[in-house]
Amino acid sequence: MNIMLFHSTYGLRPAVRAAADRLRAAGHEVWTPDLFDGRTVETVEEGRDLRDEIGKDELLKRAILAAAPHSERGLVYAGFSLGAAIAQTLALGDAKARGLLLLHGTSDISEGVTVDELPVQLHVAEPDPFEPDDWLSAWYLQMGRTGADVEVYRYAGAGHLYTDPDLPDYDEEAAEATWRVALGFLDSL
User: Per-residue pLDDT averaged across 139-158, rounded?
Assistant: First the structure.
């Protein structure tokens, strides 16, 4: 598979590069665009400030420009938290998208968006302060209405960005379970 992997609000950190390497070792081609132009942050609050400084429209533009040269191949869009939200937006707008792998995040879904059985897999903590239960229930129903084929995996007790070993949220057991399931998902596409 050809995978476009977007970083979280922390920026293009070592954990994102390690995830890309894990995917490459499984036989996938992976791109990790740096939407923050080399900047990384240490806290969620700093990440939100940086996101707001750059602007959501500019981040989406950068993501589209990064994906455009590869989209004819049929991409799987993937991302961590903020990057998952960006990946979701791109996948729902790309008729050639092969799949959507969301790690720690989702996004609003525009009315009238339809896809043809797009395979979608979401991995989130339970509970997750950024992805509360009511939101996830509504998101799941809306994704189903688009025509997506959605699977949701919840990890009890894990922190929001539980796959990043350099953050306090890290949960090794949940992270490894996520990667086992996600790699199986990618192999099925």
Answer: 95
